């Protein structure tokens, strides 16, 4: 209801508004603007409903300041726009205010495009721009240039003109004498000038006219420009601005040279020889030449120095030239000639006393060839040029001197010299004997002459040595002395029958030559810092040994030496030495303990039977006296839980002389640094000697006097306590320390295990040794027989694989889809076995070993994947068997199989390398790491393939059995049933199912499984060759054809039996 009322109200309001509007429009509106006086002058009236308003026009402003106004009293006042800032007309203009507007005019020199008198309201925009008066011609007078300026212009005289009374007049530059350079003439011209060089001069720039500074007029050298300007035989002389001509010496011209008539100047030769008197003087000949003359003296005369001006000839002295006469001749000058005579002791070659001319020589007279000789007896005459020289023979002398020359004073006579009267004539250790004209020296006893020197006779260099074996011969001056080597002592009897007897133990000198690490630490040698602690212990050991070796006449205290060695062992066990250093130090310690013990046996009174115990070692020693008189007497020695048993027969066999002693030593802690890493089994090749072993006993040592140390008839029994209880799968090895193997290694030669319990191991040795027990894990230990079996089997397999590969490639009649599968498997097996045989033990290069392991991983995986392909293809062939001798299978392209057989193994190896690259290569063989689980990258795929192949092969045999039983009676009664069964069984080995034996090499069956695994799998290549080649009828026919070189008839059937290997080879492929 209320909404209806609201709508009704809104309607009434609208009607009311419409009525009121209509009434208002009916009223009459009054227009106040109709009266022109309503608004003041210069105002505009605007009518509004019911009113009006006024507004001032443009250019005016209301007096009350309001824009809209009305009523009287208000006027419109003119606005002065020109007084505004900035002025409305712009720059360069004049603003003039007008009533209601303004007028703009430009300044003189300016104009506007809208006109010069522009009034507000006119069209366009007023802008004053500069007028360029210079664009009009005739603005400036002649010789002036116009320059426009803002609102005006100016006139400037051109260069060379000057303004005078508003007129540009020419400047006379020549009025200034400095305008042109020297030797130039100035020429004035309107507005300019020019300089011209005078005759005989030219500008430095080569211009004819000069203008401006910087150029000069230089003299023209006419003589240099024209060498013939003056004519022949003349001289041109340049002077400033000109030149002059004159004749050369020896020439003249009848006319004087003038620049006006140069052609009259001609130079002709002057004949000086026609003058009287002659310019050359007497005794001469004058020869005229062109422009000169020459003088030549007559024969027998020569010119005086001084030139042609005072040339004179004088007599020639031929003897002044030393070559006029020959050598050893005298020259005599005569008037106009000369002659030569030979000097004393010479004769002319032509026999004429006075001679001249070439070809004659003076020959020496040989006085020494005269008879008798001029020098007398016991002398030597030596001919010299022109005379002779006398010298006494060696051993003679003359009162006139030994070298007397003819012409010297005195008489030359040679007499004998007694050289033995002078001291020091003979060398040391020699006596002098005088002879006629000489002497001789004879060596004293014990010396021998050599190169005129008495040298000591080295008796020690004789062979055999005068001191006997095992001795040191020391040569002395004229004699010698003998001493024994280290480790030996002399027997009585003097040097005539000197002999040395061996000390029954080794000293330092016996140890040093055998080991370079021992030599490294000797006194005087430079020891590197890294070997400092090693050499300290080495030298400490040698100090103990030196006390026993050097003090041979004193008693060696066994107790003190044991304590010293205990200190060395304690420090060695805590040191971090290299393997070579440890081996060398251990060898020296063991030898030193043995030597000091044997040295103690030399004085049995002070070292009776005793037991010495320290923390590091324990030793029990016994002096054997009359105990061995009893029959079958055996001695027992114990130290730290270990025991040694030795019989009297062995002691007597040792050939001990003097005191007989036996000792047994047990070292505690030595096994920690002489550990299993030093073990090397010499009875087995290096390829299989890398066993998983551990040291499991203390190191013990047996010591006995006597020369014989090994090869005893009755063995020495050692009972060693196991450090850890022996496990059932562990096999103990008795090892001895051999210093001849790589400086010191544990070897198994010389000792065998008699008995092994959980706590002790009994070893039997035929030598006195340094002994220890090493435990080997049985399931990981390869016997030598297994090594031989595996290597022989692999070699046989490699040969068979080569034959099989050759057969599959060369026998084209058998080539089909399946022989290609056999070929790929044979190639992979051949490469894998060859690489395993040659590279599995190459562990010295870590990177190379890892690469070999990677290739072995890939090749063996490829073998198994091709075995899987073989198994699948065999299964498909048998499953599709329809009737006897006709089989078909679904064709699979070979490259698909190659991708599967080679690609997946490559993918597995690539992933394995990416995940764990350090898993390739081990410390003992180049194979996959078996300790970190990485081996499952191989075992995983292999076990899977073995399971699949086993299932497929079992399934295949079942299908084949059913199919063969359903064929006709003739086929079912084939004689090849046994062969078929054998080949079916051999497929287990060809397809890798026998590898499962490797998984069962644990526990008590490990040894048997190891032999089975080794024999079967090493001969896998042989199985392939036998099954696919030798037992294949088709291949047999090919072999027979090759051997007999005859072709079998094509009608002969090769399907006399159904063989497992012939199933794929006779199949039809798409």
TrEMBL record:
GO CC terms of this entry: plasma membrane
Q: Where is the G-protein coupled receptors family 2 profile domain?
A: 786-1032
Transmembrane portions of the chain: 784-811, 820-838, 858-878, 894-915, 935-960, 980-1002, 1008-1031
The entry lists its GO molecular-function terms as: calcium ion binding; G protein-coupled receptor activity
Superkingdom as given in the UniProt entry: Eukaryota
PANTHER family on file: ADHESION G PROTEIN-COUPLED RECEPTOR E1, ADHESION G-PROTEIN COUPLED RECEPTOR
This chain belongs to the protein called: Adhesion G protein-coupled receptor E1
Q: Which organism is it from?
A: Canis lupus familiaris (Dog)
